[in-house]
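We modelled the chain as a single entity of 148 amino acids. Its sequence is:
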Amino acid sequence: MKWFSLALALVAPTHAYLRFGCATLSVQRLDPLVEPGKVPSAHLHQIVGGNAFNATMDPNAGDIANKATCTTCTFTEDTSNYWTAVLYFKARNGTYKRVSQYPNALLGSLTGGMTVYYIQQDFNSNGNQKITSFKPVKSLSLRRTTRS
């Protein structure tokens, strides 16, 4: 019976994904994809991931993630960068307060940050697809994410 259960588990459809938490690296007015080299950029981002992130990243310099020596992510093999716009709450009196971001509490104790997901594109492929990171934009390994 034990072997039958194992065999059944191996032929059952799989739904693969990768999920990990990343602590905040920085909150800056930087956007090397939309406004490369402009300091400050016109908008604010919360940045997580590898320590190679900067405003003057050269799109032709290769994979920036390979230049990072550490990451704020719990999945330490990923030295890519991820960033989202910073959200503000507008009070009735007209003042603004930044809304903090945080990763899933079940992924460890991280300071600020977010949860990064890589999801299999097609769940009907029975796990035959390899899950990979986003393709580099202009040969950069920077990832731009949105928060839902």
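As a brief sanity check on the tokenised model: Confidence is low (pLDDT under 50) at residues 1-11, 137-148. Residues 2-11 form the longest helix (10 residues).
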